[in-house]
Amino acid sequence: MAITMLPVGNFQIHCIVENRIYLDAGSVYGIIPKSIWSKHQQADADNLIPFDVNVFVMRGNGHNIIFDAGLGDFLKDRQRKLYGTSQPSAMTAGLARIGLTPQDIDIVILSHLHWDHAGGSVRSVDGKTELCFPNARHIIHQFEWEDASQPDERTTSVYFPERLITIEQAGKLELVNSEQSEICDGVSVVRIGGHTRGQLGVHIESDGQKLIYYADNFPSCHHLKVPYVSATDLYPLETQRCKRETLPKAFEGGWLIAMDHDIECKVARLKYDGLKYTCEKVL
Known about the structure:
Layout: E1 3-8, E2 11-24, H1 25-29, H2 34-37, E3 48-60, E4 63-67, H3 77-83, H4 91-97, E5 107-109, H5 115-118, E6 122-125, E7 128-131, E8 137-141, H6 142-149, H7 161-169, E9 173-176, E10 180-184, E11 187-191, E12 200-206, E13 209-213, H8 236-253, E14 256-258, E15 267-272, E16 277-281
Parallel strand pairs: 4-5, 5-8, 8-9, 13-14
Antiparallel strand pairs: 1-2, 2-3, 3-4, 6-7, 10-11, 11-12, 12-13, 14-15, 15-16
């Protein structure tokens, strides 16, 4: 378990490596040939690539906020075998190392509701499902909630509506339906789409500094190039548009980008040589 911290203005950003998963390289890199992506990452004999499940915790202005909730401990044995996940969730232990408990979290922003981003928002206790963060508002886009509540043939393996309904039943569901919404002072969410129809990005601004978290539109530093889009993205052209619009702004503005699945680089600052963008590790 790794935990690191980065100041962004008046805020403290911590990264908890909640777990590690192994994903099929074809799903991760989509149409990019192996002869090209293998220069960046190496797959094992089963064509699997390791990725961390990075959960970001923001402290400041009287709030303790997490961006996504990781896997949690809700995966079935078959799913754990499929994704090579043998370790329990490190969330509670990670929070403890920065002086917090799950009860201290007052806002959970869920970029989208796939199993590796929202699974850790609920847990099973004595056969019953309950919230992992019982005192927190859970921010989700209306589109994402609708799509996760009624998964289709393509998404039924990544959404778990029978578990996520616990958020609504506990009275902690807060749906946003605008393109951009302020969550609290210095923190806003914007619908970026791409990976899913209702995927949210997070913007943090304080004292002239800015950090963005765009979840699976920028899963790692190896995915900065516009065509590097996951095969699991439901709206790949939207992912490309998001990258095309975001990268110049992030570079020119000196924004930091938090990566949800990168193993080596949790937060990066962009570099640009006139031809391509690359990551400079900050955290």
